[in-house]
């Protein structure tokens, strides 16, 4: 292992490879920043080039790209309230609120540094746990995954902005939207009303952009102001460094969140989307001022962004060691492996250990490079939020519409964009939780698949397993959190009044 | 009744429709989860509606999440622009609708002509360059050009 580590470090600093890592990082930042194009699409577009490149360079570029995307996506999440990728939806909660208060630089600094450092923490864990990931992943059953998905939705529904009931309604709506189309095991169309376009289900891009970007741009056009109220998004590099210091000030929160991201991230498919909300939830629950979450508190940026970037190394390790992609981006990287004649699985950690270690190190290097590049560009990037609405709104709408169409090149996706835009506007105006809907939509298909798999393999009492019972306990605790906290606050107020 | 209550009632009506459609499905695997989830959402909606119809004054109108009231006319105009862009793309395609939209929106919102045109041209170049040239993705041409044979 030590030899593989040394060899991996040597390979990574080879000019031929580091050059491709830098290229991947730059592409990842640009892709992450453009609404409508996410890391998955960026990797898919890069896939044809894999045929023409040596394997180390090709894979290093792809892994670098995937590492940079989430950090790039955090930039638009913080400055414009538009998630660059699914996990960035959690960063919007407080990151965008901070920009509106004129603390965009601080939010960016915190998001970027927590991303970079979380990548390093995750790499350390991945290298240390290389021998353990297989038994951990194979011990988690479908039943456990059902409750993990429910926990993620419950966290965001209960602990997000607005009332718990509205949050849970939003999550439920998301699950129902995911059921549109052909049912996964029976192949029977549901809620399609005979429309062939809906047989494939509703696409992710129009849902995401419709829920977040369209309402945001309409509100911006209505107020006619800048994103940063008062036209001040950032008070120079000092603001950015303040955010950087915040990460070290909240080092325990950062570490917990990165570990949550890594641990939840090694679970195939559900990791990235769920981990950020679990991290956000635990940050809010453990904060001295939980009522400030959602209004623009830096802890609400550090927690989800650390978790988001903590996922990468774990997801890559699952992909390498089991041949099971840990995330959608890893599924494309898996495609890259197969094109290059490499077979992910146990052999990757034996015969190809040097390459595996190198790729895991690329995740760390990619995160660090992204953070450094983005940090120094942050004061300039943050100025986007002080651009007049008359200029910003049409340009963002152009990207949103084009990005939506490009996803499947289907005009009806633009119709979906408008439908979800209207829904997002209504949810925003009346205090519902579009992030909960989005997460429910993302995970609905998996939830159904694992649910029926669990029932078929373990019977209706599939939840009677230690891991499932712990997750059920956490679910109950999540639902009870709000009412118990309110009761405690009321009692302490009564006590103070009587005193 | 508050506007938010109408929104909630609309959600509950949709849940009733989903429950009805689900009950008409034959296979248990197909209908079970939609039935359960829509039932739960309907129940939660009923709880929320009960809270909302309790007498509590709240002014109507569109609200920004910050709680400020926004100008209804400007709001409707902003919505109209979004729909206008959609119909423009549908009729004449991305490559014509986008520069027209950018130029007209900017000009009508106080940006000078020459800047509006520069941004319109820049967005066209960006769209064509990135999607059609680099990524080889054909953007939607529009009903009229397609009808005219382009």
Task: Please characterize this protein's 3D structure.
The complex is a heterodimer of chains A (499) and B (150). Chain A is built from 20 helices and two strands. Chain A is an all-alpha fold and 499 residues long. Chain A has a two-stranded antiparallel ribbon. In chain A, α4 (55-80) runs antiparallel to α6 (104-128) and α13 (271-286) runs antiparallel to α14. The radius of gyration of chain A is 22 Å and the shape is globular. The termini of chain A are far apart. In chain B, 29% of the residues are buried. In chain B, α1 runs antiparallel to α2 and α3 packs antiparallel against α4. Chain B is mainly α. Chain B has six helices and no strands. Chain B has helices at residues 3-23, 28-52, 72-92, 94-108, 113-134, 143-148. The radius of gyration of chain B is 23 Å and the shape is flat. Chains A and B meet through α9, α10, α17, α18 and α19 of A and α1, α2, α3, α4 and α5 of B.
């Amino acid at each position: 292992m030590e030899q593989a580590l040394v060899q991996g470090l040597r390979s990574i600093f080879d000019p031929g490879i580091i050059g491709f890592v830098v290229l991947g990082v730059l592409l990842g930042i640009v892709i992450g920043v453009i609404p409508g194009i996410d890391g998955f699409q960026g990797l898919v577009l890069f896939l044809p080039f894999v045929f023409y490149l040596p394997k180390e360079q090709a894979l290093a570029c792809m892994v670098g790209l995937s590492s940079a995307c989430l950090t790039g996506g955090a930039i638009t999440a913080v400055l414009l309230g538009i998630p660059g990728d699914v996990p960035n939806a959690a960063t919007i909660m407080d990151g965008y609120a901070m920009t509106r208060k004129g603390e965009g630089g601080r939010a960016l600094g915190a998001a970027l540094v927590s991303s970079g450092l979380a990548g390093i923490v995750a790499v350390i864990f991945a290298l240390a746990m290389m021998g353990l990931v297989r038994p951990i992943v194979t011990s988690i059953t479908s039943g456990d995954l059902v409750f993990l998905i429910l926990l993620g939705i419950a966290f965001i529904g209960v602990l997000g902005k607005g009332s718990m009931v509205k949050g849970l309604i939003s999550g439920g709506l998301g699950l129902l939207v995911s059921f549109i189309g052909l049912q996964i095991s029976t192949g029977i169309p549901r809620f399609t009303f005979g429309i062939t376009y809906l047989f494939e289900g509703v696409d992710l891009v129009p849902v995401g952009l419709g829920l977040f970007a369209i309402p945001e741009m309409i509100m911006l056009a209505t107020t006619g102001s800048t994103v940063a109220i008062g036209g001040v998004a950032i008070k120079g590099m000092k603001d950015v460094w303040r955010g950087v210091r915040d990460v070290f000030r909240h080092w325990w929160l950062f570490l917990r969140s990165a570990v949550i991201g890594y641990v939840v991230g090694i679970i195939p498919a559900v990791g990235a989307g769920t981990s950020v909300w679990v991290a956000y939830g635990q940050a809010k629950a453990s904060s001295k001022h939980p009522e400030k979450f959602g209004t623009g508190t830096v802890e609400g940026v550090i927690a989800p962004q650390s978790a988001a970037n903590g996922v990468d190394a774990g997801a890559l390790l699952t992909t390498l060691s089991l041949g099971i992609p840990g995330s959608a981006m890893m599924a494309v990287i898996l495609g890259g492996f197969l094109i290059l004649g490499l077979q992910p699985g146990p052999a990757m950690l034996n015969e190809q250990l040097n390459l595996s270690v190198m790729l895991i190190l690329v995740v760390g290097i990619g995160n660090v490079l992204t953070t450094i590049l983005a940090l120094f560009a942050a004061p300039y990037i943050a100025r986007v939020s002080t651009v007049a609405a008359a200029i910003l709104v049409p340009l963002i709408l152009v990207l949103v519409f084009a990005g939506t169409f490009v996803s499947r090149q289907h005009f009806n996706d633009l119709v979906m964009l408008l439908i979800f835009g209207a829904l997002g506007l209504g949810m925003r105006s009346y205090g519902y939780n579009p992030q909960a809907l989005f997460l429910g939509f993302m995970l609905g298909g998996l939830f159904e698949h694992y649910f029926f798999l669990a029932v078929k393999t373990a019977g209706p009492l599939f939840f009677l397993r230690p891991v499932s019972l712990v997750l059920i306990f956490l679910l109950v605790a999540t639902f009870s959190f709000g009412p118990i906290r309110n009761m405690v606050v009321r009692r302490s107020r009564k006590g103070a009044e009587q005193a | 009744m508050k506007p938010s209550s109408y929104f909630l009632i609309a959600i509950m009506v949709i849940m009733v429709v989903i429950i009805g459609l689900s009950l008409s499905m034959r296979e248990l695997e197909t209908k079970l989860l939609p039935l359960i989830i829509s039932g739960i959402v309907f129940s939660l909606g009923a709880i929320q509606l009960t809270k909302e119809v309790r007498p509590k004054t709240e002014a109507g109108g569109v609200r920004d999440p910050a709680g400020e009231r926004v100008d209804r006319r400007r709001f409707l105009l902003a919505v109209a622009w979004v729909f206008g862009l959609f119909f423009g793309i549908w009729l004449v395609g991305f490559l014509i609708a986008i520069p027209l939209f950018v130029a007209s929106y900017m000009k009508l919102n106080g940006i000078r002509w020459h800047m509006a045109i520069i941004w319109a041209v820049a967005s066209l170049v960006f769209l064509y360059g990135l999607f059609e040239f680099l990524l080889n993705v054909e953007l939607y041409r529009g009903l009229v050009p397609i009808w005219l044979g382009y």
